[in-house]
């Protein structure tokens, strides 16, 4: 390969590898502890499905001599997993350790000895001191969803205690000498495959991550992972794309996510960081879709307002309007001209929008006669909140600046329209916007996940959602 190829590769690789996530998810030790509880319940269910094969054979048992025996119909009665722990394995995933576990089973015994004597009954077996240790790797699958797999597993069984119902005492000799070890081996052999099964059973759940979630008729948000999860000493961190797109038309905005770091310490199971990039990609999509515009007519202004959208009201400030277009109703078109910009500063989410306001007189034949175009610079403050599994908001007007774009009615003092325009923004535009914002957009979600004890803070460049989760089945 020539030096120029190396040079090109060197220039390209860091860019493609360096895709910063727009949304970050941190699973804390508290979250892991909740995961342990759910996982142990699954493993317990799985271990209850252990099938113990029938045992039979012929052995010499003192003091009887040759005995034909069989143990059959063995059923697991209970699996006890009283002690377990989950530890993070940096770079890989988690280690699950189960100790002091026990399995109880019930079955039937049958013996034949001294050629003609037959006896039978039932028994209870208790296997104690079981340990299981499994390392579980967490990766990203080809669709950007998390996937888990068991990379190693070891199981040991401790001692077994049997209680025969009926029969003679030499049955214990038969058991301890010939059956005990084989039975424990048969159990032990099944444990790891079942644990591995229980772990892979999590994958269908993990596959429900909404990697592409529809927001409304215009937008969807992508939550696929941009890289494999990072497992450190204290947390598992996922980087999700967190980008809004036009439905079906994925055009990249002319800006990209900046790196941000979630705080390490938290009292919650999950931390979710939503970057300003995510919000800005939404602004890009809606602006591109042409939906950030609104025609305002007089019927949208509250009846109680003395200010009306007609040439009489506006004529009070711009006399030419009353003179040239007497007795006509008016219409305003408010729209953005560039993508609004969202900024997150500590405790402060602000949206800055640049747009225009075009005023028309409505002729009796419905023709619109343009009166003027104003340039509008606004800044609104946003309150953001989590509602169900959605992130919603509401904005209030901070400030508004008007300058003249074009006048079709001669010169006038733009400042004289400040109050009217402020009123229009406050009573029409912002309430309409807030109806949309209140609907919110979906947060990343797996299965039937519910958020509890949720708190949201606005920090520099991202919003931090600290939350506990609950899975309902
Ligand atoms: C929030 O930040 C904007 C600028 O980013 C500023 O104009 C506004 O005054 C701030 N609001 C508060 C409450 O600090
Ligand atoms: C509508 O009325 C206005 C003013 O009277 C006139 O200038 C315009 O040509 C009319 N347009 C149509 C389509 O009739």
From TrEMBL:
Pfam family, one: LBP_BPI_CETP
Described purpose of this protein according to its UniProt entry: The cytotoxic action of BPI is limited to many species of Gram-negative bacteria; this specificity may be explained by a strong affinity of the very basic N-terminal half for the negatively charged lipopolysaccharides that are unique to the Gram-negative bacterial outer envelope.
Lipid-binding serum glycoprotein N-terminal domain location: 26-249
One annotated GO biological process: innate immune response
One GO molecular-function entry: lipid binding
Species the sequence originates in: Mastacembelus armatus
Keyword flag Disulfide bond: yes
Lipid-binding serum glycoprotein C-terminal domain boundaries: 264-467
UniProt protein name: Bactericidal permeability-increasing protein
Description of how the protein assembles with itself and partners: Monomer. Homodimer; disulfide-linked.
UniProt record similarity statement: Belongs to the BPI/LBP/Plunc superfamily. BPI/LBP family.
A GO cellular component annotation in the UniProt record: extracellular space
SS bond list: 153-192
Position of the signal peptide: 1-18
Domain of life: Eukaryota
SMART domains found in the cross-reference section: BPI1, BPI2
Entry keyword annotation includes tRNA processing: no
UniProt remark on domains: The N- and C-terminal barrels adopt an identical fold despite having only 13% of conserved residues.
Lineage per the UniProt record: Eukaryota, Metazoa, Chordata, Craniata, Vertebrata
Keyword annotations of the record: Antibiotic, Antimicrobial, Disulfide bond, Glycoprotein, Immunity, Innate immunity, Secreted, Signal
């Amino acid at each position: 390969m020539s030096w120029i190829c190396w040079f090109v590769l060197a220039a390209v690789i860091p860019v493609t590898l360096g895709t910063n996530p727009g949304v970050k998810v941190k699973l804390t030790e508290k979250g892991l502890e909740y995961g342990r509880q759910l996982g142990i319940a699954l493993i317990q269910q799985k271990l209850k499905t252990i099938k113990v094969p029938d045992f039979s054979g012929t052995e010499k048992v003192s003091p009887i001599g040759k005995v034909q025996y069989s143990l059959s119909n063995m059923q697991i009665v209970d699996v006890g997993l009283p002690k377990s722990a989950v530890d993070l394995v940096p770079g890989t995933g988690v280690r699950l350790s189960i100790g002091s576990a026990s399995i109880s089973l019930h079955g039937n015994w049958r013996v034949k000895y001294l050629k003609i004597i037959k006896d039978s009954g039932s028994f209870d077996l208790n296997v104690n001191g079981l340990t299981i240790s499994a390392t579980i790797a967490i990766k990203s699958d080809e669709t950007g969803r998390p996937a888990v797999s068991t990379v190693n597993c070891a199981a040991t069984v401790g001692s077994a205690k049997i209680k025969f119902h009926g029969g003679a005492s030499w049955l214990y000799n038969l058991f301890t000498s010939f059956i005990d070890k084989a039975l424990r081996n048969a159990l032990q052999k099944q444990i790891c495959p079942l644990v591995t099964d229980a772990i892979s059973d999590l994958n269908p759940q993990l596959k429900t991550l909404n990697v592409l979630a529809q927001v409304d008729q215009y937008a969807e948000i992508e939550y696929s992972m941009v890289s494999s999860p990072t497992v450190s000493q204290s947390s598992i961190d996922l980087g999700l794309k967190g980008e809004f797109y036009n439905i079906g038309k994925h055009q990249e905005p002319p800006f990209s996510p900046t790196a941000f770091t979630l705080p390490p310490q938290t009292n919650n199971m999950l931390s979710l960081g939503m970057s300003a990039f995510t919000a800005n990609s939404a602004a890009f999509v809606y602006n591109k879709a042409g939906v950030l515009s609104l025609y305002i007519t007089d019927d949208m202004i509250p009846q109680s307002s003395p200010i009306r959208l007609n040439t009489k009201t506006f004529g009070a400030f711009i006399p030419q309007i009353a003179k040239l277009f007497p007795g006509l109703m008016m219409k305003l078109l408010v729209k953005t001209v560039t993508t609004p910009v969202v900024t997150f500063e500590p405790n402060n989410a602000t949206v800055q929008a640049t747009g225009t306001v075009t005023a028309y007189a409505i002729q009796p034949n419905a023709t619109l006669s343009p009166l003027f175009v104003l340039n509008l610079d606004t800044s609104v403050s946003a309150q953001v909140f989590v509602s169900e599994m959605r992130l919603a908001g509401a904005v209030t007007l901070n400030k508004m600046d008007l300058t003249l774009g074009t006048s079709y009615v001669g010169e006038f003092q733009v400042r004289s329209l400040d109050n009217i325009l402020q009123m229009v923004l406050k009573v029409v535009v912002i309430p309409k916007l807030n109806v949309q914002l209140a609907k919110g957009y979906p947060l990343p979600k797996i299965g039937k996940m519910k958020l509890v004890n949720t708190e949201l803070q606005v920090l520099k460049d991202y919003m931090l959602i600290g939350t506990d989760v609950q899975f309902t089945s």
